[in-house]
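Incident log, support desk, overnight shift.

02:14 A customer reports that sequence design results differ from what the structure should imply. Their input is reproduced verbatim below. On-call engineer (initials T.W.) acknowledged and began investigating.
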């Protein structure tokens, strides 16, 4: 016997019943979810922290993070938890995940400080530079080493200054000197300071130009100092802001006006051209490039 199509009113009744059933089921599920999310059994009862925790302990993390957390296992905003951990001193990155039914697992990555971020002539502030050129704030008392170099530039150009420092430091090591500070001034002039106290004006320009001028200086300064009976470690200051020369001041070599009938004193700041070229005097106000 052939099945006859259901009347329209029957089909409408079946459809209405199905819709009502689905609505009641959805409401029941929502009510259960709301109850579950509010139930104390799903409250966050533990936060497990691992990874790099050399500069933070449980008390520090608890004091900085817990006041910023709200919600339970289901409602807690993981992005806010991550931000709370990354606001803790020394924390560079935090990865947060839920562990059913009542725990959070947090993996921390810390900054690795390689330089102070402050002017060479100012007291160090609580700002440091990590290996990626990121400036961060931290307690300087937590540093493992007190021999960090100083870097500084306007507009937080930490990555550029750090990259240039990494190129210049091995060059000064050829003079048995340590590059203690590197600064890019507001007028885009590069300045360096050595562990001996020597101040070096590196001039303006790109990192390549600064490195080129420094290389010329490193290659010839020992020879220039030897002409005055001094070694390279006698450098008091140097000015590399000349196209084809630099000005040099050596400890123990002074500029004194010669008395009539006596030989002229050797100058304290000889201008030295690249290796193989006799030194020549230039007018600083006319020939400087920075």
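02:41 Re-run completed on a clean worker. Output:
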């Amino acid at each position: 016997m052939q099945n006859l199509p259901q009347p329209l009113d029957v089909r409408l009744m079946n459809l209405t019943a199905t819709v009502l059933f689905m609505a009641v089921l959805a409401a029941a599920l929502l009510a259960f979810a709301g109850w579950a999310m509010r139930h104390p059994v799903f409250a966050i009862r533990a936060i497990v922290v691992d990874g790099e925790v050399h500069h933070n302990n449980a008390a520090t993390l608890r004091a900085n993070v817990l006041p910023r957390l709200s919600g339970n296992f289901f409602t807690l905003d993981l992005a806010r938890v991550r931000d709370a951990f990354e606001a803790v001193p020394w924390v560079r990155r935090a990865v947060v995940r839920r562990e059913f039914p009542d725990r959070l697992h947090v993996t921390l990555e810390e900054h690795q400080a390689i330089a102070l971020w402050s002017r060479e002539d100012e007291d160090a502030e609580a700002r440091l530079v990590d290996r990626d050129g990121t400036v961060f704030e931290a307690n300087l008392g937590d540093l493992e080493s007190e021999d960090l170099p100083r870097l500084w530039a306007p507009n937080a150009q930490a990555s550029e200054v750090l990259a240039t420092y990494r190129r210049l430091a091995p060059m000064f090591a050829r003079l048995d000197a340590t590059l203690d500070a590197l600064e890019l001034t507001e007028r885009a002039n590069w300045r360096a300071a050595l562990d001996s106290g020597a101040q070096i004006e590196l001039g303006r320009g790109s990192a390549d130009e600064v490195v080129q001028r420094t290389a010329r200086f490193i290659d010839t300064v020992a020879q220039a100092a030897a002409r005055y009976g001094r070694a390279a470690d006698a450098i008091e200051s140097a000015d590399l802001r000349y196209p084809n020369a630099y000005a040099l001041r050596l400890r123990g070599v002074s500029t004194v006006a010669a008395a009539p009938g006596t030989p002229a004193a050797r100058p304290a700041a000889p201008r030295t051209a690249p290796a193989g070229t006799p030194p020549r005097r230039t007018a600083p106000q006319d020939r400087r490039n920075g």
